[in-house]
Amino acid sequence: MEKEFFVAAIEHPEFGEVYRFFEVDPATGEEQAVDPFDSGMVKLYHETPPELFYITSKRGADASGFYQGEQFVVQRGSKFAGTTTPKCPKRYLKLREELLLSGKLMPLGQQYLVMEDVEFASPLIAMGVAIGGWAKGAHDWKRI
């Protein structure tokens, strides 16, 4: 069985709202606090793709991705904006909802954490979904 993970918000007396990462044992259902990187919940790439790009936004998007053939892949561990603009295209809203329902996005404070690599048909769509609004074009993804 595949490992299951979840994120829980807790109140820390000194730091306010903080987040704990948990792994669920599929056999027993037992929950154990884990480090998101050591557990494999969030993986860092040891080999950098030929061209790695990133995007940030005022509402909290902080994502990185790369081209994989005709697709644009947003990397696991990226963060999407937690809010959307009033004029956010419906197709971006629908994609965000599908990612949330499938567990590929998890709420993390005022953002959403990308739990696994997500493929998009284009960098424009990936950016619109990540920032939660209109995207100007692929040129807004900047090279790392």
Radius of gyration: 16 Å
* Total DSSP E strands: 11
Distance between the termini: 36 Å
- Share of helical residues: 10-25%
Coarse shape: globular
Helix vs. strand class: mainly beta
H/E series:
EEEEEEEHEEEHE
What can you see in these coordinates?
The chain has 144 residues and is mainly beta. 15% of the residues lie in helices and 38% in strands. It is built from two helices and eleven strands; from the N terminus they run βββββββαβββαβ. It has helices at residues 90-101, 123-131, and strands at 4-12, 16-24, 31-34, 52-56, 62-68, 71-74, 79-81, 105-108, 111-114, 118-120, 142-143. The strands form three sheets. A five-stranded antiparallel sheet has the order 10-6-5-4-11, with helices on one face. The protein has a three-stranded antiparallel sheet with strand order 1-2-3, with no helix packed on it. Strands 7-9-8 form a three-stranded antiparallel sheet. Helix 1 (90-101) packs across helix 2. The longest helix is centred in the middle third of the chain and has 12 residues, at 90-101. It is globular. The protein starts with a strand and ends with a strand. The model has no long low-confidence stretch (mean pLDDT 86).
Provide tags for this entry:
144 residues, 2 helices, 15% helix, globular, mainly beta, 5-stranded antiparallel beta sheet
Summarize the structure.
With 144 residues, the chain is mainly β. It has helices at 90-101, 123-131, and strands at 4-12, 16-24, 31-34, 52-56, 62-68, 71-74, 79-81, 105-108, 111-114, 118-120, 142-143. A hairpin with a 5-residue loop joins strand 4 and strand 5 (62-68).
